[in-house]
Design a protein that fits this description.
Length: 405
C-alpha cells in the first residue's frame, strides 16, 4: 500500500501490518465522508493511486466475506463494482475546471469604446449599490461651486435626481450627507433647485436654504436662467444654426409595445402639393417649446451641437433634435424609433469610427451634457462643467474637435 510522509512525499508502506477493515474504515472516512482538498495535481494523482491500491487489496477480502464496502474516490461516488477512475482522467478534469474561470474572466468586449461603455454601466450600477456616503463623497469631489447660497455639482451618469421603485441611491437621498460634508455637522440640509434626467450629465444647482432654492426655481420657471447643453448628434443639422419653435405634446404609441413619448405638435402644415403653408389650430395639451442651437463642429457623419432651451418642456432637446432637425442624439434609444422601443440604428460609417457593431449599439449611453448655467444678478453666476470621459472618447474617435474656450 502507499501513503504520504509528513513532508507530503508519496511513500510506500505495506498493508499486511494493518487490519484490512481498519484501513478501509480510515480511507472511507478520509475520502468518502470528508472529501480531499488537493493543493495541486500531484496530490490528486497520489490520492487516486492510493484509493486504487487499497481497493485492489480489499477486493478479495470483501468477496470472501460477502461484504461490498463502498469506497468513495476524490471525485465521484464509485464503489468496487464501478470502473476505476484513472489519475490522468482526474488530472484532465481538474485542468479543465481551472481553465473555465480564466475564460470567463478574459471574456469582454474587444472594442475600446464598448469596453468603456460597459465600465460606465457598471459604474452607474455600483453607485446604486454603494452606501449613500460614498455617492455623497463622489459628488463633493466633483463640486463646481459652493458659496453662501448655492452649491453646484457635476451630476454623474445613471444617477436619478429623485428616488422611486428600484432606486436605492438618488441625488435627493444623499443631500443631508452631502450638506454635512460641505458645511460641517451643524450645516442645514441642501435643497433641489431643478432636475436633470437620469442619464443626463452636467451642472446641477442646489440651494443651501429653502429661500435660496425657491428663488433659483423661480428663475428657471420664468426662463431667466441661460442654460447650455452639448450633444453629440448622428447627422449634421441643416442649417448649421437657428431656432426651433415647435410645441411639444405627449402621445401614446400603440402597437405590440404600448408606451408614451413626447412628440411635435406643429402650428403649421404644408399642403400635399408642397406649395402652400397653412396654420392649424393649436392643441390644448401641447406645450410651447423653443430651442436655439448651433453646430460647433462635425466629422464622421456626426456633430457636436450646442443648444440653449428657452423653455423647459420634458425631453425638449431630445425631441427637437430627433424630430425637428432629423438628427438623433447619439445613444438616445427612446427617440430613435417612433413606433417601437428598439436600440438606435447607426450608419455603418459611424459604427466603424466608433469601433462598434450594430448589435452592441444598445449599450451606448446618451451623449447629452448640461454644459453650463448663467444666473442673472449682480454679480451673476456663470458655471461651466467638464465633459464626461465617455463623451470625450466618442469625440476623439469621430474626429470632432472641441471649440476653443
Amino acid at each position: 500500500m502507499y501513503g504520504f510522509s509528513k513532508s507530503g512525499a508519496f511513500t510506500s508502506l505495506s498493508t499486511h501490518n494493518l487490519p484490512r477493515m481498519y484501513v478501509a474504515r480510515c480511507l472511507d472516512r478520509l475520502i468518502g465522508r470528508h472529501g480531499v482538498m488537493c493543493a495541486n495535481l500531484g496530490e490528486a494523482r497520489s490520492i487516486c493511486v492510493l484509493a486504487a491500491v487499497v481497493a485492489r487489496t480489499l477486493r478479495p477480502h470483501s468477496a470472501a466475506t460477502g461484504q461490498k464496502r463502498g469506497l468513495k474516490t476524490v471525485v465521484g461516488r464509485e464503489n468496487t463494482d464501478s470502473p476505476k477512475l484513472k489519475a490522468s482522467d482526474l488530472a484532465e478534469k481538474i485542468r479543465q475546471e481551472k481553465k473555465q474561470p480564466r475564460e470567463t474572466k478574459t471574456e469582454g468586449p474587444s472594442s475600446p469604446v464598448l469596453r468603456r461603455v460597459r465600465e460606465l454601466h457598471q459604474f452607474s450600477q455600483q453607485l446604486q449599490r454603494v452606501h449613500p456616503n460614498v455617492l455623497a463623497k463622489d459628488l463633493k469631489r466633483g463640486m463646481l461651486l459652493a458659496n453662501e447660497q448655492l452649491v453646484a455639482i457635476n451630476k454623474p451618469y445613471g444617477v436619478p435626481v429623485h428616488g422611486g421603485p428600484g432606486v436605492k441611491n438618488s441625488i435627493a437621498d444623499v443631500l443631508p450627507v452631502l450638506a454635512k460634508m460641505i458645511g460641517g455637522m451643524k450645516a442645514g440640509p441642501l435643497h433641489l433647485c431643478h432636475r436633470l434626467d437620469k442619464d443626463t450629465t452636467g451642472v446641477m444647482l442646489l440651494g443651501k436654504s429653502e429661500e435660496a432654492a425657491d428663488h433659483i426655481h423661480q428663475l428657471f420657471k420664468t426662463h431667466q436662467v441661460e442654460k447650455k447643453y452639448w450633444v453629440l448628434s448622428v447627422g449634421v443639422p441643416v442649417p448649421s444654426e437657428g431656432v426651433i419653435d415647435i410645441p411639444i405634446i405627449e402621445k401614446e404609441v400603440a402597437g405590440p409595445q404600448p408606451h408614451y413619448k413626447m412628440s411635435l405638435s406643429p402650428l403649421y402644415r404644408i399642403s400635399e402639393e408642397g406649395q402652400k403653408v397653412s396654420r392649424v389650430r393649436a392643441n390644448r395639451e401641447a406645450h410651447s417649446a423653443v430651442t436655439q442651437y448651433r453646430v460647433l463642429d462635425s466629422a464622421g457623419g456626426c456633430s457636436l451641437v450646442e443648444l440653449q432651451p428657452i423653455t423647459g418642456v420634458k425631453h425638449q432637446i431630445r425631441v427637437h433634435m430627433a424630430y425637428g432637425l432629423g438628427c438623433q442624439i447619439l445613444g438616445d434609444h427612446k427617440y430613435a424609433n417612433w413606433s417601437k422601443l428598439a436600440p438606435q440604428k447607426l450608419p455603418e460609417k459611424v459604427l466603424q469610427r466608433l469601433g462598434l457593431e450594430q448589435s452592441k449599439a444598445r449599450h451606448l449611453p446618451i451623449h447629452l451634457h448640461a454644459r453650463g448655467l448663467v444666473l442673472p444678478g449682480a454679480p451673476g453666476v456663470s458655471l461651466s462643467c467638464p465633459l464626461p470621459r465617455f463623451f470625450l472618447g466618442s469625440l476623439r474617435r469621430l474626429g470632432i474637435q472641441l471649440p476653443e474656450q
